[in-house]
């Protein structure tokens, strides 16, 4: 694989964007705990006319090819609002996926870095999909725990490739798991009931059929 030329092309057509969205299914097999997003949801997220993020940011999608086979993808991101708020010139990469071939990852990182540098950015940071309001970071530990909503899941070599490229970790993000057996539900229910009784609080289900009046109540 490494001896074959790697070609990076922007994903511009609707066909290319759909290929971009579907590519992760070639990375994760059926035995993987990775949960694929709905293609329709992913396409909506990537659509500049439907995602308000694009109102203050520029995003470019790239696909990596070896011959005619797609072997990786990446998004390059310039978030104007982030840079204005933090008074910095930082570009981001996200939606990164690659086969286990460092040369492919390097070519994708190069494409993202070149894109943000051409727009005056001084550094590349990621992964951000597309910002901290979305899922971000590489999973580096905890592969034995099934992924949850808004949590990243990726092969372990992704972080290795990023560090090999010269990236340095700037922050640890932690997630915590708890089981039903560990939650002392009875204890919290007693406290909740006492608070409701003492404060004259009433808890009931919302009537979605009368939503406007429910807001006014």
Automatic annotation (TrEMBL):
<feature type="domain" description="N-acetyltransferase">
    <location>
        <begin position="6"/>
        <end position="164"/>
    </location>
</feature>
<protein>
    <recommendedName>
        <fullName>N-acetyltransferase domain-containing protein</fullName>
    </recommendedName>
</protein>
<dbReference type="GO" id="GO:0016747">
    <property type="term" value="F:acyltransferase activity, transferring groups other than amino-acyl groups"/>
</dbReference>
<dbReference type="InterPro" id="IPR000182">
    <property type="entry name" value="GNAT_dom"/>
</dbReference>
<dbReference type="InterPro" id="IPR016181">
    <property type="entry name" value="Acyl_CoA_acyltransferase"/>
</dbReference>
<dbReference type="InterPro" id="IPR039968">
    <property type="entry name" value="BcerS-like"/>
</dbReference>
């Amino acid at each position: 694989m490494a001896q074959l030329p790697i070609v990076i092309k922007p994903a511009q057509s609707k066909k290319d964007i759909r290929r971009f969205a579907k590519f992760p299914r070639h990375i994760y097999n059926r035995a993987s705990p990775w949960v694929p997003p709905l293609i329709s949801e992913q396409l909506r997220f990537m659509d500049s006319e439907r995602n308000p993020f694009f109102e203050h940011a520029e995003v470019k999608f790239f696909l990596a090819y070896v011959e005619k086979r797609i072997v990786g993808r990446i998004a390059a991101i310039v978030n104007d609002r982030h840079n204005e708020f933090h008074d910095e010139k930082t570009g981001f990469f996200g939606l990164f996926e690659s086969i286990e071939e460092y040369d492919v990852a390097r070519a994708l990182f190069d494409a993202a870095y070149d894109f943000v540098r051409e727009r005056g950015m001084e550094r590349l940071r990621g992964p951000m999909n597309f910002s901290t309001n979305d899922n971000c970071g590489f999973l580096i530990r905890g592969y034995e725990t099934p992924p949850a909503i808004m949590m990243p899941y990726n092969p372990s070599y992704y972080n290795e490739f990023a560090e090999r490229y010269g990236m340095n970790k700037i922050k640890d993000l932690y997630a915590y798991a708890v089981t039903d057996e560990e939650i002392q539900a009875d204890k919290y229910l007693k406290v909740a009931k006492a608070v409701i009784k003492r404060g004259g609080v009433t808890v009931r289900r919302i009537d979605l059929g009368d939503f406007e009046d429910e807001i006014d109540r």
